[in-house]
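Risk register update: the risk of archive-format incompatibility is retired. Evidence:
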Amino acid sequence: MIIAVIGDSSCPPKETKLAEAVGEALAQHGAIMICGGLGGVMEAACRGARSKNGLAIGILPGEDSRAANPWVSIPVTTGIGYARNMAVVKSAQAVIAIGGSYGTLSEIAYALKSNIPVIGLNTWTLSRNGQRKDPIIRVTSAQEAVNTAISLAKKKGHLE
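Archived output:
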């Protein structure tokens, strides 16, 4: 099972803590964590996953694997810039969004367009024509985010 963790490359301490706890919990459940491989939320999630002997894949925007944060287990260089955001979410059965800026917003959109569930921790709220139509599943803790992501991934992919 592969779960994406998305968020800003620089984030406040609260989001850093959440991301690290998400990474830890994913590893404890045996899920592979995939992200954009850089700093901020991505680095914290990788650090959490690796601290529990989990696997952290980083899909990098550039062509230099040394750009990956030090906690990435497997760096994947793409040379395609922000277009790599699609590869991050399309590789996962569920996505956990923590905070985030416009890159995160694009990943949320790619996931939703592909019917990949998005679980949100302190992230974007979506509306259309002034009406809230928010398909992001809102949770309040790292453990709830991981439990929800794993449950939805199992339903979506018929995974055990």
